[in-house]
Automatic annotation (TrEMBL), chain A:
<protein>
    <submittedName>
        <fullName>Mitotic checkpoint protein bub3 protein</fullName>
    </submittedName>
</protein>
<dbReference type="InterPro" id="IPR015943">
    <property type="entry name" value="WD40/YVTN_repeat-like_dom_sf"/>
</dbReference>
<dbReference type="InterPro" id="IPR036322">
    <property type="entry name" value="WD40_repeat_dom_sf"/>
</dbReference>
<keyword id="KW-0677">Repeat</keyword>
<dbReference type="Pfam" id="PF00400">
    <property type="entry name" value="WD40"/>
</dbReference>
<keyword id="KW-0853">WD repeat</keyword>
<dbReference type="InterPro" id="IPR001680">
    <property type="entry name" value="WD40_rpt"/>
</dbReference>
<feature type="repeat" description="WD">
    <location>
        <begin position="268"/>
        <end position="303"/>
    </location>
</feature>
TrEMBL record, chain B:
<protein>
    <submittedName>
        <fullName>Uncharacterized protein</fullName>
    </submittedName>
</protein>
<feature type="compositionally biased region" description="Low complexity">
    <location>
        <begin position="266"/>
        <end position="277"/>
    </location>
</feature>
<dbReference type="InterPro" id="IPR036236">
    <property type="entry name" value="Znf_C2H2_sf"/>
</dbReference>
<feature type="domain" description="BED-type">
    <location>
        <begin position="13"/>
        <end position="72"/>
    </location>
</feature>
<keyword id="KW-0863">Zinc-finger</keyword>
<feature type="region of interest" description="Disordered">
    <location>
        <begin position="116"/>
        <end position="137"/>
    </location>
</feature>
<feature type="region of interest" description="Disordered">
    <location>
        <begin position="261"/>
        <end position="298"/>
    </location>
</feature>
<dbReference type="Pfam" id="PF00096">
    <property type="entry name" value="zf-C2H2"/>
</dbReference>
<dbReference type="InterPro" id="IPR003656">
    <property type="entry name" value="Znf_BED"/>
</dbReference>
Length: 362, 319
């Protein structure tokens, strides 16, 4: 039999997944945050003794769960594989010691916390909340008073590149902050937030859904609820800005409709750049597919076979060998009783040697 | 009389349909043909990419998959070659194009002849004046019966001692009609046989079935005149309606006339044909803003919507 390149993790979360992330060092350590108020820590490549008996259909081991008071909206690793930060619906940002399971509140917003990112290089923890603020901490120096940055809109997506953090908000607002400047402002303890390094309008006309930064620090990709992805560069020069582009994706043509063909447009729920092949990124859509794109060559490299349900999140492992895909029902307009219960899965795909390697610009 | 709209297209219409060099299928319009070619003949079997031409596919296979294309997929056995560069109707060799047209024409007339034979309808343009539906062909039995009646009548006249002067005018038309009816029923060789010569030969043929009808009406003198005058009129056009070779010949002529008529209209019909080229382009642009249904369309993010649900809602404790 051909080697299994794709498998489902045993013991998936009980409800929809909000985010998943691989550890910065170990390529099989995966953290998953869920709407069922838990954060799950998996080892994706060991099979537990008491795993299910269905002939090894399920893989991986659930190492630990970390219960929160409210649904967990985002999770990220901290300085090492044993530290994590979570963004909670309960307005709190928490530090979780993955070894001991100990949770310590780091910050408190006045609304649910949507995203949380950690920059190892600058030892900065940034949380974005629907109270339209960013809280900036230095977890390694808790004595510093956290910095609060007021945003012009509710943040929905945030991503950090080596030197920048991109915050995408309502009304198509995008602010880019320089991490070194933020760190300096936190260090100085003046309490005054630095202005954004750049302020942009999203290239996409609809609500931004996800942001991912290029590991090369060259630029970033955004996606919207209207089946579209945009790629742009930090460099403000005219020629760099001329390189930016956007394209449609995660759409399906429905021929069954009475009034001719209908284009069904799904939200692009998540984006992730490949840590090794920095021009490759994955997009995850409400159409239950994940596609790999070559940002430089502007080419689609691959579309994976449809998953059982909408894809809520994607992540590459630090070594780029694995792709984790969070599968759970997508929230659609008009839904009154959403539940991801029993339909939530985590699929791990082992990538081939050159599966995510782009061809470069032509 | 205006031309009736038929469900069967003109041969001209069929000939003007775009068709695929590789599989001889024809299509409603050029756009469909091109999309057919891209899907059936120029599609990469490795990655599903649809190229515009066989050459394009060959280059694609070479560059992307490092393979060489040996033949065109789904093509007729003698059309699999990569040497001809086909795009839609462009690039079809002249001889192949002529073969195709000939085949179309042949099939068309065959189908038309079959149709006329099956329905008994006349070819267009010939049926209106003399609809052959009114044509009555007497079966041999009918003819024998009439002959018998006639003979019985003559016999009755003779028996009555009447002068035989009335018979010749009666016999003559009969003689002219009967052989013809007889011939039509059996062979269509000669439309106008010499009346006199055939008559003597007839009675022996009819004799075996002959039995004088006992109920023969005495007022029989009225019978032949009432029957006869209608016959020549209905009989004469029969040859044009019946024999198939003549019918299609007539149709050929009919077609030639229409071709001539069309010759003048041709330049006019040619302009829409060329204008059709950009038309699909426009249509495809329109397609872009066809019906769109967004699965999620809201100013609030899905997470905010979900956070509003009691299931996930967080009620902060009063601090």
């Amino acid at each position: 039999m051909a080697p299994t390149t794709q498998f489902e993790l045993a013991q998936p979360p009980n409800d929809a997944i909000s985010s998943l992330v691989f550890a910065p060092d170990a390529p099989t350590r995966l953290l998953v945050s869920s709407w069922d108020k838990n954060v799950y820590l998996y080892d994706t490549h060991t099979t537990s003794e008491n795993g299910d008996a269905e002939g090894g259909v399920s893989h991986g081991t659930l190492l630990k769960t970390y219960e929160h008071r409210a649904p967990v909206m985002d999770v990220c690793f901290g300085a090492d594989d044993n530290e994590a930060f979570t963004a909670g619906m309960d307005w709190e940002v928490r530090r979780v010691d993955l070894e001991s399971g100990e949770q310590t509140p780091v910050s408190k917003h006045t609304a649910p916390v949507r995203r949380v990112v950690y920059s190892k290089a600058h030892s900065l923890l940034i949380s974005a909340s629907w109270d339209s603020t960013l809280h900036i901490h230095n977890p390694s120096n808790p004595s510093l008073t956290p910095l609060t940055v007021t945003l012009p809109g509710k943040p929905h997506a945030m991503a950090a590149s080596p030197s920048k953090v991109i915050v995408a908000m309502t009304s198509r607002l995008v602010h880019i902050y320089d991490l070194a400047t933020l760190a300096g402002a936190l260090e100085s303890q003046t309490g005054s937030a630095p202005p954004p390094w750049q302020q942009r309008e999203s290239s996409l006309k609809f609500l931004t859904r996800a942001v991912a930064a290029m590991p090369s620090d060259g630029g970033y990709a955004t996606s919207s609820i209207e089946g579209r992805v945009a790629v742009e560069w930090f460099d403000a020069s005219a020629e760099s800005q001329a390189r930016k582009y956007a394209f449609k994706c995660h759409r399906q043509t429905d021929n069954t409709a009475a009034a001719g063909t209908t284009d069904v447009v799904y939200p692009v729920n998540a984006l992730a750049f490949h840590p090794v092949h920095g021009n490759t990124f994955a997009s995850a859509g409400g159409d239950a597919t994940v596609a790999l794109w070559d940002a430089e060559a502007k080419r689609r490299m691959k579309v994976y076979q449809k998953f059982a349900d909408s894809v809520a999140a994607v992540a590459f492992s630090a070594d780029g060998r694995f792709l984790a895909v969070a599968v759970c029902p997508g929230f659609e307009t008009g839904m009154e009783d959403y539940s991801g219960e029993g339909c939530t899965k985590i699929v791990i795909r082992e990538l081939g040697e050159n599966e995510a390697k782009g061809k470069g610009a032509k | 009389m205006g031309k009736k709209k038929r469900s069967h297209p003109d041969v001209e219409d069929i000939l003007s349909r775009p068709w695929c060099y590789y599989c001889e299928r024809d299509f409603e319009d050029l756009k469909l043909l091109i999309s057919h070619q891209k899907a059936k003949h120029f599609k990469c079997d490795r990655c599903g990419r649809r190229l515009n031409t066989a050459g394009g596919l060959s280059v694609h296979m070479n560059q992307v998959h490092k393979e060489s294309l040996s033949h065109v997929e789904n093509a007729l056995p003698n059309r699999q070659g990569l040497d001809v560069e086909i795009f839609g109707m462009e690039g079809i060799p002249e001889d192949v194009s002529q073969q195709h047209n000939q085949r179309i024409i042949q099939n068309f007339y065959q189908a038309q002849a079959d149709r006329y034979a099956a329905t008994g309808n006349p070819p267009p343009g010939q049926g209106s004046k003399n609809p052959p539906k009114k044509l009555k062909i007497e079966s041999p039995d009918d003819i024998k019966k009439r002959l018998a009646e006639h003979r019985a009548r003559i016999a009755a006249q003779k028996a009555a001692g009447g002068a035989p002067t009335h018979t010749p005018p009666l016999v003559r038309p009969m003689a002219r009609v009967l052989p013809r009816a007889h011939l039509l029923a059996h062979s269509y060789n000669s439309p106008f046989p010499p009346p006199g010569g055939q008559y003597p030969g007839f009675p022996p043929q009819g004799a075996p079935g002959f039995s004088p009808p006992p109920q023969y009406p005495q007022g029989g003198f009225n019978y032949p005149p009432s029957n006869l005058p209608s016959r020549p009129g209905s009989n004469l056009p029969a040859p044009s309606g019946l024999p198939l070779d003549l019918a299609s010949l007539g149709d050929h002529i009919d077609q030639m006339i229409r071709d001539l008529e069309r010759g003048e209209a041709a330049p006019k019909s040619a302009t829409p044909a060329t204008a059709e080229e950009p038309a699909p382009e426009k249509k495809s642009k329109k397609d872009k803003d066809k019906n769109v249904r967004m699965v999620y369309d809201d100013d609030l993010s899905p997470e905010e919507r979900m956070a509003l649900m009691p299931r996930y809602a967080f009620v902060p404790q009063a601090v």
